Amino acid sequence: MPKQVRNVASDDYLTAIYRMSHDEGQDVIAVRLADRLEITPPSVAGMLKRLMRDGLVHIDAKKVIHLTPEGFRRAEQMVRRHRLAECLLTDVLKVDWWRAYEEAHLLEHGISDITERNLYEMLGRPKKSPFGYPIPGPGAPQKLSMVTLGDLKEGQEAEIDRVFEEDEQLLRFFDEEGIRPGVKVVIEEVAPYRGTITVRVGERRIVLGTPVANKIWVVQPARAGTSAETRR
């Protein structure tokens, strides 16, 4: 059996840790990882022992899980293949945008080093996934915006950078409402006691719950000293 197929379980853990820490700026602890993967805490503890034994992760004194250099390399390789598969599905096979994450998860483990190189060239050397995430490789940014719609104040404008991709029903909602990378939005109302924000997308007004708003990362127009990134 090809090596990339044999390592499915460990690669899923490594990519989850990568997404949570690198893409979302979270401290990854075992209980969060269990929740993300929908796996019991004892199962997560067992896999973490295996990953530590193999030199792929280490856990610091505060119980935060970190990828080692080798773990990071393997995670980036799988994330790269996943995001190339997403591009293949949406750009070539014309699969619905909101379906691409789940479908790509089925394909990523079957992509070899040879196939990956050819796929990258055939797709025109894409830089980002359909959901706005950078495709790891030469030239990919090391730091991403960690500002979400939920961080913004009334009247502020922003452009959607990327959206949380691991919830198919949420992606379908985003698709129906036109919430995609590259779309410009304006915050019309923040209602903390109701737990909602109202955004304008073109001529449409959309009400979002705060948990959903926090799964939409944005970039703001460059204004010296006034961006949400600066204020944080």
TrEMBL record:
InterPro entries: DtxR_MntR_Metal-Reg, Fe-transptr_FeoA-like, Fe_dep_repressor, Fe_dep_repressor_sf, FeoA_core_dom, HTH_DTXR, Iron_dep_repressor, Transcriptional_repressor_C. It holds the Pfam family Fe_dep_repr_C. Gene3D superfamilies: 2.30.30.90, Winged helix-like DNA-binding domain superfamily/Winged helix DNA-binding domain (1.10.10.10). Homodimer. This is DtxR family iron (Metal) dependent repressor. PROSITE patterns: HTH_DTXR. It comes from Tepidiforma thermophila (strain KCTC 52669 / CGMCC 1.13589 / G233). Its main location: cytoplasm. One of its GO terms (biological process) is negative regulation of DNA-templated transcription. Belongs to the DtxR/MntR family. It is found in: Cytoplasm. The lineage of its organism: Bacteria, Bacillati, Chloroflexota, Tepidiformia, Tepidiformales. Residues 1-68 form the HTH dtxR-type domain. One of its GO terms (cellular component) is cytoplasm. GO terms for molecular function: DNA binding; DNA-binding transcription factor activity; protein dimerization activity; transition metal ion binding. Keywords: DNA-binding, Iron, Transcription, Transcription regulation.
